Amino acid sequence: MGDAEAASIRAARADWVAEHLETYLTSGGTRGHILDVSAVGGRELTTHCLIKCVGRKSGKSYIRPLIYGNYGGEIVIVGSKGGADSHPQWYLNILASKTIGVQVATQAFEATWREPEGEERHHVWAYMAHLYPPYLTYQQSTSRPIPLVMLSPQRPIDVFTAEDAR
Predict the structure, then answer these.
(1) Which domain of life is it from (predicted)?
(2) What is the pTM of this model?
(3) Are 111 and 73 in contact (CB under 8 A)?
(4) 37-50 burial string, b = 16+ CB within 10 Å, else e?
(5) DSSP alpha helices (H): ranges in 68-133?
């Protein structure tokens, strides 16, 4: 899938993503953590976290809702961008940071990150594709390896608010 087709899919889902983020933020994480994404090929009970990172060019803080999995005690997020040929901006911003903010339901923390390699990457990818099967289609539609980011909590922080997202 080219960038134009992926952009069309993202545009169609933009309202849904904004609504999801608003629900997660205004509820303090009591709503929005688990969503039914079966309508788009996912599972009925799919877990979502929020990530907060600083723009590598703008210096602004950004919050994004993402599907996540827990693998060996680390939180895993996937830089799929719907199978686009370019990486998502949040992933590029993470590459420029040592830590990011993460919120899972009603708990938030600062986390360090790493990318799994080799055999571990293969196992983590299989696990995430099981949690959200469309990742397989996304990978088939682009030549770039879709990034996996593993997050390790370091210290608690305040949950994110709607003000943090502006």
Answers:
(1) Bacteria
(2) 0.90
(3) no
(4) beeeebeeebbbbb
(5) 89-95, 118-131
CA distances to 30, 105, 143, 144, 148 from 123, in Å: 31, 25, 20, 18, 11
- Predicted confidence (pLDDT) per residue in 111-123, tens digit: 999 999 999 999 9
Segments making up each domain of the chain, as ranges: 3-156
The full DSSP string for 22-51 is HHHHHTTTSSSSEE--GGGTS-SSEEEEEE
> Which residue carries 């993503």 as its tokens?
17
CATH code, 3-156: 2.30.110.10
Rg value, the chain, Cα = 15
Distances 130 to 84, 88, 110, 161 between C-alpha atoms, Å:
20, 21, 27, 31
